[in-house]
Amino acid sequence: MTSPVNPAPFARLNAADAEIARRKQEVLSGVMAALAAHKEGKDHPRLLTPARKAELKEIDRLRRIAMETSKMPPLPRIIVTRPVDEWRDYTTERRGRFGAVRQE
């Protein structure tokens, strides 16, 4: 239905509403098909099988890692190649927090 005052925007809104309703109907029909397949003991892409559940967990784990890395990226490693007298030889030794020695 178009408005006589401003027909183009309202027609575009009506088309968007129709698209949303179509998507909702598509999702609902997919869910109903999955439920029917489950009752019949058949496989359906929307059913949550153990393999699909593991795949979703892995996707979620990678998403969380990406989110954490985007907020706190890893710091660059400082590699010192020549020895310093007061802090010993940095080619085999690293100093951690409070001067603790970490061998690498």
Write the layout of secondary structure elements.
Layout lengths: L6 H34 L9 H22 L21 E3 L5 E3 L1
Antiparallel strand pairs: 1-2
Structure keywords:
single chain; 104 residues; mainly alpha; two-stranded antiparallel sheet
Question: How would you describe this structure to a colleague?
Answer:
There is one protein chain. The chain has about 100 residues and is mainly alpha-helical. The protein has one domain. The protein has two helices and two strands, in the order ααββ. Strands 1-2 form a two-stranded antiparallel sheet. The longest helix has about 35 residues. It is flat and about 80 Å long.
Task: Characterize the largest beta sheet: strand count, sense, and whether it forms a barrel.
Answer: 2 strands, antiparallel
N- to C-terminal distance = 73 Å
Number of domains: 1
Number of helices: 2
Strand order of the largest sheet: 1-2
Tell me, what's the shape? flat
Radius of gyration (Å): 30 Å
Mean residue pLDDT: 77
Could you estimate the helical fraction of the residues in percent? 40-55%
Report the β-strand fraction as a percent range: 5-15%
Tell me the total number of β-strands: 2
**Class of secondary structure makeup:** mainly alpha
Give the SSE order as H and E letters: HHEE
- Which runs of at least 5 residues are low in confidence (pLDDT < 50)? none
